[in-house]
Write a structure and sequence with these properties.
With 323 residues, the protein is mainly beta. Helix content is 14%, strand content 37%.
């Protein structure tokens, strides 16, 4: 019988990473080593998550989807995606700012890369004082103006910066330029795609030690050059219940904030559910199985499980993710 599944994190090391994830996950780092991302659930090539608990331990995510099919991911999900898990879930620690980048939509990605485009959602877990991120433009622009700004090194004048605090949510649809700023620990939900067009890297692209490939030519035709009144998602916290914070063509995300035991009913949901713990800790009970989840951990609830009881230690907040 299927049960709540934990997976071994896949750690990524980039030039902008820090030590927050190592502290959160009790990972011992070597001198000068950092962790930038923890891929919690992944079906990206060469980065397939492996089960860490129960009788399925040691099997990877695609292997168990091949065995359990719709019972694991949902009948409609399996029919569309097969053994490829459709989402990539991450925790990200930015000790320095990430590059300014953009992702193509499904149509462009299919044509150029025979892959899905990329949509993301960010939930801010911890932010240092005065931390900010870049998302979208602060004024309407166009391709020509954008190219001139890059050439003249004045792109920063066109970028929209947002001061942030814990609990803030940002939707990052394909086409929207963005960069996670330094001093931010966040949870990221995205569909399974690893296609990123880097545009600008805060000067690191001019240093031989830190330079990474830029993709400006590819990015020009996918950028949304409009400016919007608001980029931050407004939502309400409903105590001891769920509250929707994101819904798009690829996934849906709720927050579940609770300080007493609650029951989540998934009878009518034809999808898996993934929990990412962003505050506190809790016990999950279902089908006589118990599993603890703490801040910085992720658990996959198979689609065949209709009901989950969530029991907080004192208080917990989870991201509740489904298709």
């Amino acid at each position: 019988m299927l049960y709540p599944l934990k997976f071994y994190p896949i750690y990524k090391h980039y030039v902008w990473g820090g030590i927050a994830l190592a502290e959160l996950k009790n990972v011992k780092l070597k001198a000068d080593e950092t962790i930038s991302e923890s891929w919690e659930l992944s079906s990206v090539n060469a980065n397939i998550s492996v089960v860490a608990n129960g009788f399925l331990a040691g099997n990877n995510l695609q292997e168990i989807i091949e065995i359990y099919m719709g019972d694991l991911v949902g009948e409609s999900v399996y029919e569309k995606y097969g053994i490829e898990f459709p989402l990539l879930l991450k925790f990200i620690d930015a000790a320095q700012s990430l590059s300014v980048q953009v992702h193509p939509d499904d149509e462009v990605a299919l044509k150029r890369h025979n892959a899905y485009g990329k949509e993301e959602m960010w939930y801010i877990i911890e932010a240092e004082k005065n931390a900010e991120l870049c998302i979208g433009f602060n004024k309407k622009t166009d391709k020509k103006i954008f190219q001139e700004a890059l050439k003249n090194k004045t792109l920063i004048d066109f970028l929209n910066f947002e001061k942030i605090c814990n609990g803030d949510v940002f939707d990052v649809p394909s086409g929207r330029i963005h960069s996670i700023g330094k001093g931010i620990l966040l949870a990221e939900v995205q569909n399974t795609s690893d296609i990123t067009y880097r545009i600008y890297d805060w000067g690191r692209e001019y240093d031989a030690k830190t330079a990474r490939q830029m993709h400006v030519d590819l990015a020009l035709d996918v950028i949304d050059y409009n400016s919007y009144n608001s980029y931050k998602t407004k939502y309400d916290i409903i105590k001891n219940d769920s509250s929707e914070i994101c819904r798009n063509n690829h996934f849906a995300v709720n927050t579940v904030d609770f300080d007493s035991a609650i029951i989540r009913d998934y009878v009518s949901l034809d999808s898996f559910v993934a929990y990412m713990c962003v505050e506190g800790s809790a016990i999950l009970e279902c089908n006589e199985n118990k599993e603890k989840i703490t801040k910085g951990e992720t658990i996959l609830i198979p689609a065949v499980i209709d009901e989950v009881k969530l029991i907080p230690d004192t208080h917990a907040r989870l991201l509740e993710i489904s298709m």
